[in-house]
Amino acid sequence: MFRQAGWDEPIIFNLGKVGRVGYTLPEVEEDVKRAVGNLYTFIPENLQRKNAPKLPELSEPEVIRHFIRLSEMNYGVDSGLYPLGSCTMKYNPKINEYLAGLPKLGMLHPYQDESTVQGILEILYRLERWLADITGTAEVCLQPSAGAHGEFLGVCLMRAYHKLNGELEKRKDVLVPDSAHGTNPASAAMAGFNVVVIPSDEYGCVDIEALKAAVSDRTAGLMLTNPNTLGIFEKNIEEIAKIVHEAGGLLYYDGANLNPILCKVRPGDMGFDIVHINIHKTFGTPHGGGGPGAGPVGVNEELAKFLPVPRIVFDGERYRLDYDKPYSIGKIRCFYGNVAVLLKAYAYILSLGREGLEEVAEVSVLNANYVMQKLKEIDGLALPFNSEKPRKHECVFSAKPLKNKTGVSALNIAKRLLDYGLHAPTIYFPTIVDEALMIEPTETVEKEELDRFIEAMREICREAHEKTVKVLKAPQNTAVQRLDEVKASHPQTMALSWRMYQKKLAAKDP
Ligand SMILES: Cc1ncc(COP(=O)(O)O)c(C=O)c1O
Q1: What Å distances lie between residue 342 and 157, 189, 278, 338, CA to CA?
Q2: Distance from Cα 378 to the centre of ligand 1, integer Å
Q3: Which residues contact 100 (CB under 8 A, 6 or more apart)?
Q4: Is the pLDDT score of 187 beyond 90?
Q5: Which class for 186: exposed (0-12), middle (13-18), buried (19 or more C-beta within 10 A)?
Q6: Which helix (H) or strand (E) is 358 found in, with range?
Q7: pTM for this one?
Q8: Which of 69, 85, 278, 377 could, after both became Cys, cross-link 426 (CB 3.0–4.6 A)?
């Protein structure tokens, strides 16, 4: 049975005592003087710090124990199964962290002269080439910091393309299927486009007739995830590409679901013009808490001239940064992107090679289909959209039959799973499935762990039918019990920094 630690742990600012020391630094003034010599005296008087910053003062064990206790009340990809559909929360091999943490890489500064950063430029250049090869695109830009950021770059590229063709004024529509991730319409709207939603057909794929009716000379492009968020491969992709291209639009690939097709099929070969890659999902670097991530974007030859600057170029001897790109949309982020995250992806691809990446795709699909077949047997869960067909890396069940019969919802199931020491799947997305449970086991899980999840799901549905209150009151075995989800995400109730916390205290007690 699982029982999470529950410490009554204060925040670090409320720990320690004035004068308590954890680590002794050399005399700062002397040290700085030694390091920068006369420069020190050039810091203007008004910029020199007079008082020490107000930091908590703690001993080393206090710091270590504080963070260990917090970690014991947490659950992460190193704890166990994390089947958060669409998010691809998989185990990240530690060797990637090791490589990214090497001091020779970690101590580099983006303002260093090109001649002194040839090594990292070579790594980034190679990574660009590998990603172009994997996605079937001509050129890749590593700058975006997340999938959504890559999407935003992608739609900005669409805009630049139509502008250069003198068609931007009329091409205002970006088409987005109703199964799309919310960031797709958000990115299109941020780039100034109108969002036109395309319904799914009975098989969970883009409704071709609805697509035909929606495309016109107002179409800037279509944003598509393939396999889509139901885990279903859009089998009509070539026809979709033809429809969009014939109308003068561009085809955008949301690469959040690239892992099940790695080295099997390539978005570029399917007809996509712009592709983003969620590095932090597909290539084994951590994802969560909004970052850090990386969302490189690959494009076909025609669009390459619009990519952000600088571009890394290799003249056969030296790597250099090329800013001389008159059609470039400019910069989308400072420097070369989230380099530490990109380094982990580089290590991941290098360590697995083409065959290893293919195996990633195969096992991610195998695991999802194993779970899907087993869950189909459970009374109360339904698999909408062509339930006889296999899925790719994820499957989306509906808990609606269970809810209708017992009152137990997808949310209740998700909360009860926590009591079993398992992370919950994504719930209520995609929105086209009622009471959705979106399950993505990933390829980094053994069969025994999948069986544990399946057993827990079976047991929870049984509890629901037996009307045990446990499932409605869950979680009980976790560090915190059921949170008020609205309150927890309301900016008025959150104190995200010590300063905010102090302000809140002051407001309560004037
Ligand atoms: C299908 C899909 N597209 C786009 C995104 C956005 O990616 P990111 O979270 O890196 O911004 C996600 C995130 O989970 C996703 O699942």
Answers
A1: 22, 28, 11, 6
A2: 29
A3: 106, 340, 341, 343, 344, 347
A4: yes
A5: middle
A6: helix 339-376
A7: 0.92
A8: 85
Give the whole-angstrom CA distance, residue 486 versus residue 413. Answer: 19
pLDDT in tens, 72-97: 999 999 999 999 999 999 999 999 98
Q: Which residue has the tokens 């001509």?
A: 138
Write out the two tokens for 18. Answer: 């004035």
> SS3 for 313?
strand
Residue nearest to atom 5 of ligand 1 (CA): 147
Residue pLDDT, tens place only, 24-54: 766 666 776 666 665 556 678 888 778 878 8
What confidence score (pLDDT) does residue 467 get?
Answer: 85
The pair of structure tokens assigned to 3 is 């029982």
Q: How far, in Å, is the centroid of ligand 1 from the Cα of 243?
A: 26
Q: What is the mean pLDDT of residues 200-211?
A: 97
For residues 347 and 92, what is the distance between their CA atoms, to the nearest angstrom? 11
225 lines ligand 1 (CB under 6 A): yes
CA of 256 to the centre of ligand 1 (A): 6
428-432 contact pairs (CB < 8 A, 24+): 429/85, 429/86, 429/181, 429/229, 430/178, 430/179, 430/180, 430/229, 430/230, 430/396, 431/178, 432/178, 432/179, 432/200, 432/230
pLDDT at 164: 98
Q: Whose CA is nearest to atom 10 of ligand 1?
A: 147
Given a contact cutoff of 8 angstroms between Cβ atoms, the answer to whether 328 and 299 are in contact is no
Distance of CA 60 to the CA centre of its chain: 34
Q: Which amino acid makes up residue 337?
A: G
Who has greater pLDDT, 167 or 54? 167
The answer to whether the beta carbons of residues 276 and 254 sit under 8 Å apart is yes
- Strand stretches in 203-272, DSSP E: 219-225, 250-255
Q: Which tens digits make up the pLDDT trace of 428-475?
A: 999 999 999 999 999 999 999 999 999 999 999 999 999 888 899 999
Q: For the chain, list the domains and their CATH numbers.
A: 12-80 (no CATH), 114-350 (3.40.640.10), 360-483 (3.90.1150.10)
Angle ∠(497,500,502) on CA atoms, nearest 5:
110
Write out pLDDT tens, residues 263-316: 999 999 999 999 999 998 899 887 765 557 899 999 999 999 999 999 999 999
